[in-house]
Structures are given as structure tokens and as C-alpha cells.
Design goal:
The complex is a heterodimer. Chain A folds into two domains: 2-77, Roll (Ubiquitin-like (UB roll)), CATH 3.10.20; 86-157, [2Fe-2S]-binding domain (DNA polymerase, domain 1, Orthogonal Bundle), CATH 1.10.150.120. Helices cover 35% and strands 16% of the residues of chain A. Chain A has five helices and five strands; from the N terminus they run ββαβββαααα. In chain A, strand 1 (2-8) and strand 2 form a beta hairpin. Chain A is globular, with a radius of gyration of 15 Å. In chain B, the strands form seven sheets. In chain B, strands 3-5-1-12-9-10-11 form a seven-stranded mixed beta sheet, with helices on both faces. In chain B, strands 7-15-14-13-8 form a five-stranded mixed beta sheet. Chain B is α+β, with helices and mostly antiparallel strands. The chains are: A alpha+beta, B alpha+beta. At the A-B interface, helix 2, helix 3, helix 4 and helix 5 of A face helix 1 and helix 19 of B.
């Protein structure tokens, strides 16, 4: 077992983990942060995407021990309590989700995308979300959600 | 164009979804999130071979592994090894092989369940699989359907003596009628095998709960009510001791319309071990163990006069059942049977379907379930007929479709389409598409020999929703009814519960059902809670599939809400000392006509009904009403989809340049949700046309059973869609609704392929296999040009 110290959504945890434990399993099973979900076993679907030190990472493609000392933000930590991050608001407003299973990863990836490129074109949004699969929406309203989120975030800056 | 009627109520408004707050904040209750004290996790030893005898199985090694509690093969499981049910014996002589939860002596497809191990954590259970000892004697696998039904073929189930599951026939007049035709066009279409690949992998938890003998099952299913009944029937767990809950369910698309062997195993083992048992599939398990969809060989023949008037249609299907029959496997092609004539008038229609067993994962419902296959065939062959006749493909359709003034119209397949307006939807689609402009550009590119050619794909489709009047289902030998239930309760605090038998998994029922109830009760949407997907709280229901939830379930909500107002009116009249007829009900308040001061809101009526201190004689306490509605007939959404397809003739690369769809789904409860359903459906249909296909090699080994190799389109692979709607209300239900869950997936596949063929028909191409990958398209062009 390895000793691990991470901050997840503002709470610092110290745990012993098996070296083979994936970050996503550590989040879900050891910490009970079940907002982040698992959709595949080949790192294709992106449902498990979280921010590690501010950068989006598929948490199935990283060992928990690799996150030692990191600050992790999951879907449960992007806004405080009942508050809404602009990306969350935009997804609701633009009907950017249906079953909602891809949504945690989509929201996190969209936040990361907009951090890097605050005014993306449609093509840039589609390329930027290439690692996140959605089976319900056909992506049409997800693209609109990210465009709307960009507007909302621009508004908060000015 | 979108005909949103202002009802002055919540009905018809694009209200933002109630579901979204929890889904967007990671506060969702997926089955895999459930972690009960004392849970043991199940892992499954699956067959690596498509067909083999199990010559040796010893699970005892697993018991020596850390944290392992128990392990079972078929022998150890004994009488608890229940069989998976099939509830649709389509013919009296249908061949139905035994489908035990754990294979007994032979495995029949890769992924077949051989043994299980239970450990206190999932990783230990997975590790322990390695400690089981199993030997197989490989048998010849049967993968190709035509080989399977050839004389002398290896048998998937030796004891059955045949690989033919059934042969089903309808019609019979084609061969005589075809003599009147001037033109006959024949094509063989391959509707390839698809994997539903909902985003949430299946998961099930079963646990003995509380002080009773109750077993509670949480499972990621579309059909908690049907599942409860069938699990009770096959396991022997008394139905009254079984509660089934479908918590938040992450997509289904038909793939969770099933009683899976893993659900049977988890239920049986929770009972045997007396503790919670949990199983969550990996994605790679899902792709061999969750049922697949489509997989038909379609031999289609269409006959017409030289002026384009249709004479008849002949359909000969071979439908791949896979290795076993699941819940409605054999019936899926028959759901399509009624729809091969599409929107067209003709004088003869012959249908034959042969169900075939192969050593592959069983097939069953996948978004559209039979109707995408039939729509693909008719819309593709209409284009081929148009080409043969030298007619504009839309003109050929217009000449033959049922005209607006001809509804209701009984088709050659025997269905009565209640309403439709193909002219209106098509006119709108042509306008949005700039059809004439596209045709002009197509001509100019063709004339200039442009390397990138443009094609226009048309799909003027209809489908049937609201499955179905129970008597009709009975006539088709489907062992269930088609009704739906709703109970509406007003609680003493004035809050409302709408208890539905539908079971959403992304469709937004919590929002839409609130809108229906709100429009009748006058109670704000936010004060209405939709209770669903729990046989303990919502005991009656037939669940969600076949675009039935609104078309059937919506009627029950409307009827129950109206009955509730009727009961409340009697109580309010008593309280207000007037006759019920003297009351009008406005915005949730009973008012005495002509005296607005005398009024009682619904919540106050509910409190009076609760205390029962002063109720009129003969009126029972509590304020609730229920309705169980059997639909009078199907509903028939339709629409016109147009795809502008660009084909790079040198590389085979295909691009969807523009996609326009105008759908007529009748009256809309929430246009935002309708539009979202269309988007998702169109995307899945495009995915069949361009990207997806589950492949096996000749030994029955899956070639792409994971998300690295099975290409579910991601955002850059799809365009934005141009959508609109027309509204021709259905007359088969009082809301005038039709259904929209499957429409897009049914319509878009032929639009895309027709567009590709249209782009390269001048090169000698008259069909392209799906998925139309660049390699497939390039090879098709090469072959048509006389290359290899």
C-alpha cells in the first residue's frame, strides 16, 4: 500500500491505496466522490474526466498514486454547493444533456477547453471535446452549450 | 413553422429540465454508486470461444483467493440457475433453445457466462477469475446466416436440429400482381449489426432488505416493472417479495429493455447468500454481453408501372437472432414488418422473415427495433427505382405517398395511419435545404468533374409508436399488454405526485410529465414530483421503449389528472356550499361562478380530503385518482430528412455537409426535449450509416468489441443539424401526441446512404455497404469503375 495525500474538491484526504488503483476508482470507492463515473475500460469515453491541478485528465488513465500532492476538481467541486458554474448553467439552458452520464466529463472538458480558448469556433469546440463521447445528444446542443458558456464567462470577466 | 400552440399552460413550452440540476452537479444516483454494507461483488468468467464444449470446470481455486466469499458454475448453482425468458414466441413452432444464466455444458458465443465468483471487493473478484480451472473442446462456429441455414450446417444448438428459429409470412399477392408491372428493381441490403453502447454500463445490486423477506433490486434498466414480473417467474422469488428500482439510468436505446442473465444471477445469489450482491459490467464485457441490434440481410424487390406508380413490394429477410433468444429477440424484425411499405400506396406486399441462430451475441431491440431496418430498405429501394425509371427521387415519392386528404389510410400491411401531412413536412424541408440550389450545385460539380461530388439523400419516413393496443399485441403472440398507468395524488401540503409506470433514462419524463399534469391541475411544474421506476412507489407500469411513454403514458397522466379534478370538485362544492356544476377550475383554484370571493385552492381541498372532517357523504378520504389506459391504436410520426453528402471520389472520404429534418410528431409537450430527441436519433442513424458495425471473424471472434475499435462518433464526426417540425395531431390519443424517441434514428440512415449513392451514381455505383467508411466507399467506386 502506498500513502497518498490529495485535495479533492477542497477537502484534503490522506489514504493508503494499492499501487494499482486507478484515480477514478480511488475517487469513487475510497473517497465516495461518485459524481465522477466510469464509462469504458479503454480511455475512450471521457466520462471520468477531472481537473488535476487545473488540467483535464481522464481519471481512468492515471494511477491514484500519480496524483499524490495534487489538487483535483471533480464535477462535484466545480461550483459551491447549489451554485452553478457558467458551464453548468449553459448546459441546462441549451439542453446539452439527456441521460447525463457523459455530463460530468463533458462539463469538466468544456471548462478546460474554455480556459485554454475562451472564444472557440464550432470546429474548435468539436475538436476540443473529441475525447468525450455522448450517445444521447448528437453533440448539437453540447456545442451550443459551450458557445453559450463562453458568452456567460466573457460576461463574468467584464 | 414549429406549431407550438399557446395553451396558456405549461403544455407545449420549452421548459428547462428538472432533472438537470442533479445531473450537472454529480449528484446522480447511478446503480454503481450504491454501496450497501456487507456487499459482495460478482465477477463473471466468460467464454473466450464462440462455440465449445465445457469439458472441465473447477471453481474451487477461486475460493482460495483473498476476499472471496463464494464461487459457482452451473453445477454448483443447481436449481438457482434460472433461464433467461423470451416473451415473444412469434410462431407456434418457433425454436427456442434453453438459455441458462450459466452455460451448462456448451458455450454458444464469445462472452457466454460460464461461472461467477463473489468477493468483498470488485478487484478481488476479478483477480479470482484467474484461479478457476476451465477446459473447452472447441466446436465449429456458425457466424454467417446463409451458411447457418444451408443443409448440413453445424448447429448452434445441437439438440434443436436446426439453425432456423422461425419462418414468418405475411401477404401473398405479390407474384400475381407483379405481372402488371413495367419495372422491377431488386436489391440486397445489409443492415449491419450494431451495439447499443449506452454510456452507463449495466449495473445491478440486489439485497435482502428490512424485516420482511423482500429482495430489493436496483438495476440499470428501462423496464423495472416487466423485470420484476419476469425475475419473479424465472427465479421463484415471490413477486410480492421483490421490489425493483431503476435509479438514474444512463441511456438505454433498447439495450436496457431486457432481462439479463446477470440480473437473474445477482437476484438469486443475494437470496442464497443473504447479503447484498453487486455486479457492474466493464465496457468490454458490455460489448459482448449486452444484446446487439439490427443484423439483417434484406432481399427487397419493388415493382412499378413505367410512370412510377408502385405496384408491389416483396421483402425476404434473414434476421440474426444470435445464439439465444432474449426477451423479444424474435419479434424485432416483425415490428418492422408492418412498416416496409412506408408512406406509400401499393397493391401487393409479401413479407417473409427467417430467424437464424448463429454463434454470436443475441440481438434484440435497438433504437427503432425493426423500423430502422424497414425504413432503410424502402427508402433505399425508392431511390433505386427512381434511378431505374429516370425519375427525380422526390417526384417518385410524391407520386406514391398517401395524400393528406386520404387519411385515415389503411396500408397494404394492414395498419391504419390516422393522420399525416407528408406534403407539408416535405415542402418545409425542401425550403430549409435549398433543394433546387443543391441540385444545381450537384450538376455543376458533375459537369466540371469535380473530385468532390455532391449527393442529395432523401428519406420520407414514417414509423409506428405507442406500442400498442393490448389486443393487437395478443394477436401477435406478444405475452404482455400495451397499457400504461398513472396515479395522481395531491398531498395534504398541496404538493402533487404524478406516479407513472414509464421509466425514463434520459428522456426528461420528470419535466414533461409535470407539464402535462400542470396543464390540467393548474399547479406549477415545480410543485409536481414525478415518481417513477420503483415498483414499490409506482407499482403499475409497462415501462419505456418503442417511443410509447408519451403516446401511451401521457394519456394516463391526462386521464388521472382529470379524474382527480373531478373528485376535488365534489369536495370543493361541499366546502363552498354549492353544486359542483357551479364551480369553475382556474389555475388550481375552484371558484364559484359569479362570486370570485368564494374559492378553494386544490391544496386546501387536499387538506380537507386528508382530515376528512367535513366530506360529502359517499366521498372517500384522500385526494388521488388513477387511470390505466390501453391505447386505441398506434401513432405514426413522420417526416422528411434531407442530407447533402460530399464524397471525395479519390479517397472515399464522406462528409455530411448539411442535414435538414422536418419531423411531424404531433402535439409537442416540450419542444426543447423533442428537438434533443431528434438530434440524438439522427446522430445514431448517421452512426449506422457511416461509422458503426460489430464484426465477427469466421470463428465467431468479435473484431471490435470495445470503444477503441467500435467507432461511436465523437463531436468532430457529426455536423450540426437543421431541424423543424410540423404538427398534424394524432387522433389515436387525446393529447394528439405521437412519439419521438426513435424517429431520428429511423429516418437518417437511408438519407445518408441515399446521399452517398446519389453523389457517385454517375460512376456506376448503385449501393454502398454500411458503415460507409472511406475505404468502403473508395473500394465501391473502384469496383464500379472496373477496378479490383
Amino acid at each position: 500500500m502506498e500513502h497518498l495525500k490529495v485535495t479533492v474538491d477542497g477537502t484534503t484526504y490522506q489514504k493508503e491505496v494499492e499501487p494499482r488503483t486507478l484515480l477514478v476508482h480511488f475517487l469513487r470507492e475510497d473517497l465516495g466522490r461518485v459524481g465522477t463515473v466510469v464509462g469504458c475500460d479503454t480511455s475512450n469515453c471521457g466520462t471520468c474526466t477531472v481537473l488535476v491541478d487545473g488540467v483535464s485528465v481522464k481519471s481512468c488513465s492515471m494511477l491514484a498514486v500519480q496524483a499524490d500532492g495534487s489538487e483535483i476538481t471533480t464535477i462535484q467541486g466545480v461550483s459551491d454547493g447549489n451554485d452553478w458554474h457558467p458551464v453548468q448553467s449553459a448546459f441546462k439552458e441549451c439542453h446539452g444533456l439527456q441521460c447525463g452520464y457523459c455530463t460530468p466529463g463533458m462539463v469538466i472538458s468544456s471548462i478546460d477547453l474554455l480556459n485554454e480558448n475562451p472564444n472557440p469556433t464550432e470546429a474548435e469546440i468539436r475538436e476540443g471535446l473529441e475525447g468525450n463521447l455522448c450517445r444521447c445528444t448528437g453533440y448539437h446542443n453540447i456545442v451550443k452549450s459551450v458557445q453559450r458558456a463562453a458568452e456567460l464567462m466573457e460576461g463574468t470577466k467584464s | 413553422m414549429t406549431d407550438v400552440v399557446d395553451t396558456g399552460t405549461a403544455l407545449g413550452r420549452p421548459i428547462k429540465r428538472k432533472e438537470d440540476a442533479r445531473l450537472l452537479h454529480g449528484q446522480t444516483n447511478w446503480t454503481d454508486n450504491i454501496q450497501l454494507p456487507g456487499t459482495v461483488h460478482m465477477a463473471i468468467l466468460r467464454s473466450p470461444l464462440a462455440h465449445a464444449k465445457i469439458t472441465h470446470l473447477d471453481v474451487s481455486g477461486a475460493l482460495e483467493m483473498p476476499n472471496v466469499v463464494a464461487a459457482f458454475g452451473a453445477a454448483e448453482l443447481g436449481e438457482l440457475n434460472s433461464s433467461v425468458p423470451c416473451v415473444w414466441p412469434v410462431t407456434d413452432d418457433m425454436v427456442a433453445p434453453d438459455f441458462p444464466a450459466l452455460a451448462k455444458d456448451t458455450v454458444h458465443h464469445v462472452g457466454d457466462c460460464v461461472a461467477v465468483v463473489l468477493a468483498t471487493d470488485a478487484a478481488s473478484a476479478a483477480d479470482a477469475l484467474e484461479a478457476m480451472s476451465v477446459d473447452y473442446e472447441p466446436l465449429q462456429a456458425v457466424v454467417n446466416m446463409e451458411s447457418a441455414i444451408s443443409p448440413g450446417s453445424t448447429l448452434v444448438h445441437e439438440d434443436k436440429g436446426t439453425n432456423t428459429c422461425y419462418v414468418y409470412n405475411l401477404g401473398g399477392g405479390y407474384d400475381e400482381k407483379v405481372k402488371e408491372a413495367d419495372v422491377v428493381v431488386k436489391r440486397r441490403f445489409i443492415n449491419q449489426r450494431l451495439i447499443p453502447a449506452f454510456m452507463e454500463p449495466r449495473s445491478v445490486v440486489a439485497a435482502p432488505m428490512g424485516m420482511s423477506d423482500e429482495i430489493t433490486m436496483w438495476t440499470s434498466t428501462q423496464i423495472p416493472h416487466i423485470l420484476r414480473l419476469l425475475i419473479a417467474l424465472v427465479t421463484g422469488i415471490p413477486e410480492n417479495n421483490l421490489r425493483v428500482i431503476a435509479p438514474d439510468v444512463g441511456g438505454g436505446f433498447g439495450g436496457k429493455l431486457q432481462i439479463y442473465r446477470e440480473e437473474i444471477l445477482v437476484a438469486q445469489l443475494a437470496r442464497k447468500l443473504g447479503r447484498p450482491v453487486k455486479w457492474t459490467e466493464t465496457r468490454s464485457e458490455d460489448m459482448v454481453a449486452t444484446h446487439h441490434g439490427r443484423d439483417q440481410i434484406q432481399d427487397i424487390e419493388i415493382a412499378a408501372k413505367s410512370d412510377g406508380t408502385l405496384v408491389g413490394l416483396k421483402v425476404d429477410l434473414k434476421a440474426n437472432m444470435g445464439a439465444y433468444l432474449q426477451i423479444i429477440t424474435p419479434g424485432i424484425p416483425l415490428l418492422g414488418m408492418f412498416m416496409y411499405p412506408g408512406i406509400y400506396k401499393m397493391d401487393a406486399y409479401d413479407f417473409q422473415c427467417t430467424g437464424v441462430f448463429t454463434n454470436t451475441t443475441p440481438t434484440d431491440a435497438y433504437r427503432g427495433a425493426g423500423r430502422p431496418e424497414s425504413t432503410y430498405a424502402i427508402e433505399r429501394i425508392m431511390d433505386e427505382l427512381a434511378a431505374e425509371l429516370g425519375m427525380e427521387p422526390m417526384e417518385l415519392r410524391r407520386k406514391n405517398w398517401i395524400k393528406h386528404e386520404e387519411f385515415p389510410y389503411t396500408t397494404i400491411a394492414g395498419l391504419t395511419y390516422d393522420t399525416g401531412n407528408y406534403e407539408l413536412a416535405t415542402a418545409r424541408a425542401l425550403e430549409l435545404f435549398d433543394y433546387e440550389g443543391m441540385r444545381a450545385e450537384q450538376k455543376s460539380r458533375r459537369d466540371s468533374g469535380d473530385r468532390v461530388q455532391l449527393g442529395i439523400g432523401i428519406s420520407t419516413f414514417t414509423e409506428m409508436c405507442g406500442l400498442a393496443p393490448s389486443r393487437t399485441l395478443g394477436a401477435l403472440k406478444y405475452v404482455a399488454g400495451g397499457w400504461e398507468h398513472c396515479t395522481v395524488r395531491v398531498l395534504p401540503t398541496g404538493k402533487v405526485e404524478v406516479i407513472t409506470g414509464t421509466s425514463p433514462h434520459g428522456q426528461g419524463h420528470e419535466t414533461a410529465w409535470s407539464q402535462i399534469a400542470s396543464s390540467i391541475l393548474g399547479i406549477p411544474v415545480e410543485d409536481i414530483e414525478v415518481v417513477h421506476s420503483d415498483t414499490g412507489r409506482a407499482p403499475y407500469g409497462m415501462d419505456t421503449y418503442g417511443s410509447r411513454s408519451l403516446a401511451v403514458g401521457g394519456q394516463a397522466i391526462k386521464a388521472a389528472s382529470e379524474r382527480l379534478v373531478d373528485k376535488a370538485r365534489v369536495i370543493a362544492a361541499h366546502q363552498l356550499e354549492c353544486s359542483p356544476e357551479d364551480l369553475e377550475y382556474v389555475d388550481g383554484v375552484f371558484q364559484v361562478k359569479g362570486d370570485r370571493e368564494k374559492a378553494q385552492p386544490l391544496g386546501a381541498v387536499a387538506f380537507e380530503a386528508f382530515t376528512a372532517h367535513n366530506l360529502p357523504d359517499g366521498v372517500e378520504p384522500t385526494l388521488s385518482a388513477e387511470a390505466t389506459i390501453d391505447p386505441q391504436d398506434f401513432s405514426f410520426p413522420h417526416g422528411t430528412h434531407l442530407a447533402a453528402m460530399e464524397v471525395d471520389t479519390e479517397t472515399g472520404k464522406v462528409t455530411v455537409r448539411k442535414y435538414v429534418c422536418v419531423d411531424d410528431v404531433g402535439v409537442q409537450v416540450n419542444p426543447m426535449i423533442v428537438e434533443g430527441q431528434v438530434h440524438g436519433g439522427v446522430a445514431q442513424g448517421i452512426a449506422q450509416a457511416l461509422y458503426e458495425g460489430a464484426n465477427y471473424d469466421e470463428d465467431g471472434q468479435p473484431q471490435n468489441a470495445n470503444l477503441s475499435t467500435y467507432l461511436i462518433p465523437s463531436a468532430p464526426d457529426l455536423p450540426s443539424f437543421i431541424t423543424d417540425t410540423t404538427c398534424t395531431p394524432s387522433t389515436t390519443n387525446p393529447l394528439g401526441t405521437k412519439g419521438v424517441g426513435e424517429a431520428g434514428a429511423i429516418a437518417s440512415t437511408p438519407a445518408i446512404i441515399n446521399g452517398i449513392v446519389d453523389a457517385i451514381r454517375h460512376l456506376g455505383v448503385n449501393d454502398v455497404l454500411m458503415p460507409a467508411t472511406p475505404m468502403t466507399v473508395w473500394k465501391t467506386i473502384q469496383a464500379a469503375q472496373g477496378g479490383k
